[in-house]
């Protein structure tokens, strides 16, 4: 049982405030789709509209070609898992999972079989007779997911299901969810403002901001070829470096004049670029210590962040602009050092003053 979900030109208003403005989106059967965006951008609202918990002011939502936005939630064949798992405290785990099915008079042997199967998938078989109060947060979240699984819905909707868990448990549950995804053949939509969750779980990510969709793409498309400065800023840690630049053409490609006067040739085609101001985007991993090779420019190290496997160097160029470079985990650099930096011009991005993006020509190279 699975669902192809079509969202067509959907808008949502609360009073005079437009929260979602003409969103269109097609989710494939069995796809794991993540809605990613900052707090308040409308992720939960869109999810709740698909579930039927919010009305649709304009546009349509269809599943497998049939319009569902006019159906009551119970007839949409969708299960939703919330951030707060809201289990019934006086019922056992098994009863919590069975409750929704008993309500719609599913035969008890079918219920038992489904609960047992879900418990096996989620590895909570040994907890079935406990009450929610006797479970850890991660176990409760698994029960909440189990409650959704037993319904055998066409689609699962998850609204930040991991955000109440501590950091270690969050990572573990994330991995479990990725494994579960391979066992349960169903369409899944997962809402988060955590870009690492989005990158690790999604087949495709929908980046939302300011009432609109900024970009829809696979994790690597979003990372390597962000459609806007917003996406480039939101996805990736540390965030992409941005430098105000002047641009000129060099044999058909953009050459950037960095704020300290350094010239950097890029792999971005110059054709189609407009006037106005531009920013150059380059991720820290494309800025390295020169270490013998000719440096693009030099900077003074202000801050050093040791992450174990690599070290981030916050360096200040001569004009005062800051660029974060990446060095090995066991970096010998010290704060205050003057270092030569090599910027990989083939891994740069260009953003105009409206936030639109230009990339190099080869996908997957950025
Ligand atoms: N019932 C409501 N009445 C009025 N405004 C609302 C209502 N529900 C949500 N909003 C507003 O709609 C916007 C989108 O809210 P939504 O909950 O969808 O955001 P979100 O992306 O899920 O954010 P978060 O990451 O914080 O959960 C917000 O500005 C919010 O204040
Ligand atoms: Mg939300």
Description:
With 366 residues, the chain is of the alpha+beta class. The chain has 2 domains: 5-228, 3-Layer(aba) Sandwich (Rossmann fold); 241-358, OB fold (Dihydrolipoamide Acetyltransferase, E2P), CATH 2.40.50.140. It is built from 8 helices and 21 strands. The strands form 4 sheets. The protein has a 6-stranded mixed β-sheet, sandwiched between helices. Strands 13-12-11-14-20-21 form a 6-stranded antiparallel β-sheet, with no helix packed on it. Strand 20 and strand 21 (357-358) form a beta hairpin. Helix 3 (108-122) packs across helix 4 (137-149). The longest helix is centred in the middle third of the chain and has 17 residues, at 167-183. The model has no long low-confidence stretch (mean pLDDT 93). It binds adenosine-5'-triphosphate and magnesium ion (MG). Adenosine-5'-triphosphate binds at residues 14, 19, 37, 39-45, 193. Magnesium ion (MG) binds at residues 43-44.
List strands and helices in order, with pairings.
Layout (H helix, E strand, L loop, with lengths): L4 E10 L2 E11 L4 E5 L6 H9 L6 E6 L2 E2 L10 E4 L11 H11 L4 H15 L14 H13 L5 E5 L7 H17 L3 E6 L2 H7 L2 E6 L2 E6 L1 H6 L4 H6 L6 E10 L2 E5 L5 E7 L8 E5 L4 E3 L7 E10 L3 E8 L4 E7 L9 E6 L4 E5 L4 E2 L8
Helix pairs in contact: 2-3, 2-4, 3-4
The site of magnesium ion has 2 residues, from helix 1.
